[in-house]
TrEMBL record:
Residues 147-181, 208-227 are annotated as: Disordered. PANTHER family: ALCOHOL O-ACETYLTRANSFERASE 1-RELATED. The lineage of its organism: Bacteria, Bacillati, Actinomycetota, Actinomycetes, Propionibacteriales. This is Alcohol acetyltransferase.
């Protein structure tokens, strides 16, 4: 990751936002809080050209020059003179990046055959910020390889939008923070204050910024979700942990139009349809024979409602659940119930109220003077308690359109996330939607049932899986 070149610039620093502090406090060997976005090209990657493209792209993103430092009361990002070097993809996906005893960059660029992969420590950036970086990187690489290609909109960042033909608003697109981004066309890549502080941390900012509707549904002032300590016992997927904590990945790929038709037939968004299918797959693979609750957390892109062009973390999470054995448990009914819960909580006003409460909590005088190590313990305990009330996390980065000429040279895009609980990451490009299932377990029974549910409805689904056990790794050796 570290080369011999230097970047000359003014030393600046900024405090981490709320989300980033939680990532640091809750990271572990099994969940290093790393995510990967990959672009699959139409040719094998040229490493030398990719390094040239990285050199150019890196200069446009001062945020990605930052290293993480520890203070007495908080963590902060600080400029550095380090420089990234492209490497072969020899580690398992989402391998740890941040090391407390080392001063290193918080991202890496690797390649394998036709894939260019960007891995990011989540405390640095969210999925939208990473997608902007990867978009510029791939576009610069394609132009270096094909210098005769013209690109009239080279500075335009990658766009994410609702998959073509999806007439239903789907604001739950990202961890990752995705969806249409309001504001200036050119993102601000500098090391600047976070958008949470700008929108929710100032008392003088009283008038709600967001007034866009989130589609038809119940009013935002409907019943609130119960706090985590009052929730029912939630079913959690368990299994045999992988060796050396490596992440098991299973990738399913299916045509976007066919999946949208299935979601539309149930009258729900694509994200909630896939969440409902996952719940049904877990129920079938686990053989649940008594009433149990399944719950999912779905990150939402706040840029859709609160304009921001910062690549730093700017998302909120929404929790949805269904209790089997109480009412209708068929797939359509479950999907519609999840969709109703999601729309209720994803209204801009509801999101703003929730985030202002978090901001007030962070500003409490007692917490401000608590030393950082003790804050880490407290936040870590809160995170673990919250995880006990979840079955899965579902992140949908939506449909991505890359700038030209990169868009025409890229096929699938993929998103992987390390997670202490099973995670489903969804992203689409070039008419193909890729669903990546990640977990720390060998077993993939719920993924098998998920694929069967889709193929049973007429979809064509392709499957690829990573090797994690000693036997599987031995089979891959020449």
């Amino acid at each position: 990751m570290i080369g011999g070149r230097t970047w000359v610039g003014r030393r600046t620093w900024v405090r981490l936002d709320n989300a980033s502090n939680i990532f640091l406090a809750s990271r572990s060997d099994a969940d290093p809080k790393v995510f990967r976005i990959s672009a699959e090209l139409d040719h094998d990657v040229d490493r030398e050209l990719l390094q040239q493209a990285l050199d150019t792209t890196y200069g446009k993103y001062p945020l990605y020059h930052a290293v993480l430092r520890r203070g007495v009361f908080w963590y902060y990002l600080q400029d550095s003179d380090l420089y990234p070097v492209v490497t072969a993809d020899e580690q398992h996906t989402c391998a740890p990046i941040y090391q407390a005893d080392r001063r290193n960059l918080l991202f890496r660029v690797v390649h394998h055959r036709r894939r260019i992969c960007l891995e990011v420590f989540h405390a640095l950036s969210d999925g939208t910020g990473a997608l902007w970086f990867l978009s510029d990187l791939v576009n610069t690489y394609v132009r270096l390889r094909n210098p005769d290609l013209r690109n009239p909109d080279q500075s335009r960042p990658a766009e994410t939008a609702r998959p073509a033909g999806d007439s239903l608003p789907d604001p739950g697109r990202a961890d990752y923070a995705t969806g249409p981004v309001a504001g200036p066309a050119e993102p601000v890549h500098a090391l600047i204050a976070d958008s949470f502080a700008y929108y929710f941390g100032r008392r003088r900012h009283e008038e709600p910024v967001a007034d866009r509707p989130v589609g038809e549904g119940p009013p935002p002032d409907g019943p609130q979700r119960s706090p985590w300590w009052r929730r029912r016992r939630v079913h959690r997927i368990r299994g045999t942990r992988t060796p050396d904590h490596r992440t098991r990945v299973v990738e399913l790929t299916a045509p976007v139009p066919e999946l949208l038709d299935l979601a539309r037939s149930e009258g729900v968004s694509l994200t909630m349809y896939l969440t409902g299918v996952f719940f049904e797959a877990v129920r079938r693979s686990s053989g649940l024979d008594r009433p149990r609750t399944l719950a999912a957390t779905v990150p939402v892109n706040l840029r859709q409602f609160f304009p921001s062009t910062s690549p730093r973390n700017f998302f909120a999470t929404i929790r949805v659940e269904h209790r089997y054995g109480h009412g209708s448990d068929d797939l359509g009914s479950v999907c519609r119930e999840l969709d109703r819960q999601f729309r209720l909580q994803a209204a801009p006003e509801a999101l703003e109220r929730k985030l202002r409460r978090f901001a007030r909590f962070e500003r409490m005088p007692v917490l401000r003077v608590v030393p950082r190590p003790l804050k880490d313990v407290i936040l870590g305990l809160i995170s673990r308690a919250s995880n006990r009330g979840l079955t899965v996390a579902v992140s949908n980065l939506g449909r991505v359109t890359l700038p030209q000429p990169a868009d025409g040279c890229v096929g699938r895009l993929l998103l992987h996330v390390s997670a202490v609980r099973p995670q489903v990451c969804v992203i689409s490009h070039a008419g193909l939607l890729t669903m990546s299932f990640t977990s720390q377990y060998h077993e993939t029974g719920h993924v098998r049932e998920f694929a069967r549910l889709l193929t049973g409805r007429g979809l064509t689904v392709t499957v690829a899986a990573s090797r994690v056990t000693e036997e599987e790794l031995a089979e891959s050796e020449p």
